[in-house]
């Protein structure tokens, strides 16, 4: 009988050890998944920031070219182009507000 009780106790101890190990492995896997998600989100944020900076730079270049074209040759066409660029900048500014 004592051997049976000892065997049941050992079985319970081993069962508990395996459950703790399984939980530890599951938690480690969950931490890895969460860290990977954080890395992906951070990379996505960096890409979005870079795209926004690129768009901003393109709009600024377009603005500068329209302004310079108008200053060099203040024709109706260049005035129209400058007006369009300024309208885009105004829309962009309003979108940021």
Notable traits:
95% helix, 2 helices, rod-shaped, 97 residues, mainly alpha
SSE topology sketch:
Layout: H1 2-72, H2 76-96
Structure description:
It is a single chain. The protein has 97 residues and is an all-alpha fold. Helix content is 95%, strand content 0%. It has 2 helices and no strands. The chain has helices at 2-72, 76-96. The longest helix is centred in the middle third of the chain and has 71 residues, at 2-72. It is rod-shaped. The termini are far apart. The mean pLDDT is 91.
Can you describe this structure in just a few lines?
The protein is mainly alpha-helical. 95% of the residues lie in helices and 0% in strands.
Query: Uncertain runs with pLDDT below 50, 5 residues or more?
Result: none
What is the mean pLDDT? 91
Biggest sheet descriptor = none
Number of strands: 0
Any idea what the shape is? rod-shaped
Report the C-alpha radius of gyration, rounded.
Answer: 33 Å
Distance between the termini: 80 Å
Look at the helices and sheets and give the structural class.
mainly alpha
List the helices and strands in order. Answer: HH
Helix content: over 70%
Summed up, the helix count is 2
* Percent of residues in β-strands: under 5%
């Amino acid at each position: 009988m004592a051997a049976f009780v000892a065997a049941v106790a050992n079985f319970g101890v081993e069962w508990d050890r395996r459950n703790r190990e399984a939980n530890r492995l599951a938690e480690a896997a969950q931490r890895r998944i969460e860290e990977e998600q954080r890395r992906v989100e951070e990379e996505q944020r960096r890409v979005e920031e870079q795209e926004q900076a690129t768009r901003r730079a393109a709009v600024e270049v377009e603005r500068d070219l329209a302004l310079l074209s108008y200053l060099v040759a203040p024709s109706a066409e260049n005035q129209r182009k400058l007006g369009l660029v300024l309208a885009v900048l105004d829309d962009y500014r309003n979108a940021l507000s």
